[in-house]
Amino acid sequence: MKVIIDRAALLDAVNLVSGVVAARTPRPQLTCVKLTARKSGKVGDLTLAATDAEVSLRLTTTQVDVQEPGEALIPADKLRQIVSAEDAEPTLTLESEGSDCHIKGADARFKVLGYPVAEFPPIPEFDKPQGAGKEGKARPTLSIPAGVLNAMISRTLFATARENSRYAINGVLLKRDGKKLEMVATDGRRLALCRQTIAAEKDAPAINVIIPSKALTMVQRLIEDPEEAVQITVTDNQVLFRVGPEGDGARAVLSSNLVEGAFPPYEDVVPKDQDKRITIDRDVLSSAVRRAALLTNEESRGVRMKFDSKGKQVELTSRAPEMGEAQVEAPLAKYDGDDIEIGFNPAFITDALKVIVDPEVIIELKAPNKPGLVRSGADFLYVVMPVTLQ
C-alpha cells in the first residue's frame, strides 16, 4: 500500500475512528486502525476501520492519491499522535511494508510497527450485516435526514442511565411503527421521549431495539450535513448506520451490538391526569434554575419551585447547611390551575432545557409527590420525578 493523503482529512478520520478503538483489551488488534487503499481507474479512496468488538466504524475519505492499493493494521494512538504532530505538512505519505507502516512528511520519517491485517476481526457491512438471516439481508431499513436523527438523539441520550445494572436502560429505545418514529431514554428517575413523523416505506417492518449510548454518540460525531441521508438497518443483535450515499459511496458505516433486555413500559410512566399547566420562557426558566442551584450540595440537591397562579410567577428557593440560601423569582407566561410547591433536582431540569429549541416550554404538574411533565411542541416530552425537600 502506498498513498499520499491530505493530512487534515486523515487527522479528522483518525480522530473519529479512534472513538471506537478499545481502551483496554488483551487483543492488541482491537487497539488498531485498519487502513485499506482502493483504486478504480484514476479514482481512489482510503478506508479506516476500527472496532472494540461491540461497536465498529468504517470511514472513507477520497482526499487521497492511491499509488498502490493495499492494507495495513497499525496502533490507533501512534497514528493519531504522528498525524497530529505533523501539523506543518499539507500531505503525508503512508506506505506499508509487511506488517509495518512508514509515514513520511517533508522532513520526518516514522516507522510504526503493526500487525498482520488478517488478525483484524471482520466488520459488518451495511448490505450484508452479521446475523441478518439466510438471505444475507437485514430486516427493517429506514432512511432519515441526518439533522432530524441528530436532534432526536440529542433530546434523549442525556437521560440514559450510566452503568446501571438494568442493562436495558443503558441505551436508547428506537421504535418505528409505520410513519411514527420514537426514541426514548430513562435512568429510572426521568424519561425523555422524542417523536417524529417519517415517510412511509412500503412493507417496512416495525423496529423496536435498544441502541447503546456509545453508538449514538458516535453517530452524532459522524453527522456533518443536516440534509445528508442516514440509513438505519437492524438484525437480531445489531444495528447499522450508513451516512451518505448508498452503496460504495457511503462516507461512513457504523455498526453496534444491541442492548439486550426489555425496555420499561414507558407509556405507563407518562402522566395523563395533570391539572396544572404552566407556560414559561425557556431561557428565563433555565437562568432561574441555574442560579437557584448555586446554593445546593450533594445532601440538598433539590430546588423548591413555588408556582403562584395569581401573581403569575414562580419562586425558586434552595438551601444548604453551611452554605446559605437562594431565592429567585421568574415570571410565567400562562398558568392554569391551583398554586403548588414542588421540588426537583435542578440538573434534571437544566438538562432538558438545553435540548429544547422552542422559546417557550410547558410544564404540567399534579401534586408535590407526583412526577412533572415538560413539553416542547408535539414532538418532545420529558417526565421527571420530584425530590422531597425538608
Describe this structure in words.
This protein is α+β, with helices and mostly antiparallel strands and 390 residues long. The chain folds into three domains: 2-119, DNA Polymerase III, subunit A, domain 2 (DNA Polymerase III, Chain A, domain 2, Roll), CATH 3.10.150; 141-267, DNA Polymerase III, subunit A, domain 2 (DNA Polymerase III, Chain A, domain 2, Roll); 270-384, DNA Polymerase III, subunit A, domain 2 (DNA Polymerase III, Chain A, domain 2). Helix content is 16%, strand content 41%. The chain has helices at residues 7-17, 76-85, 146-157, 213-222, 282-292, 346-355, and strands at residues 2-6, 32-40, 43-51, 55-61, 64-68, 70-75, 91-97, 100-104, 109-112, 141-145, 171-177, 180-186, 190-197, 207-212, 229-234, 238-243, 252-257, 276-281, 303-308, 313-320, 324-331, 334-336, 340-344, 360-365, 372-376, 380-384. The strands form four sheets. The protein has a nine-stranded antiparallel sheet. It has an eight-stranded antiparallel sheet with strand order 6-2-3-4-17-16-15-10. A five-stranded antiparallel sheet has the order 5-1-7-8-9. Strand 3 (43-51) and strand 4 form a beta hairpin. Helix 1 (7-17) packs antiparallel against helix 2, helix 3 runs antiparallel to helix 4 (213-222) and helix 5 (282-292) packs antiparallel against helix 6. The longest helix has 12 residues, at 146-157. It is elongated, with a radius of gyration of 25 Å. The termini are far apart.
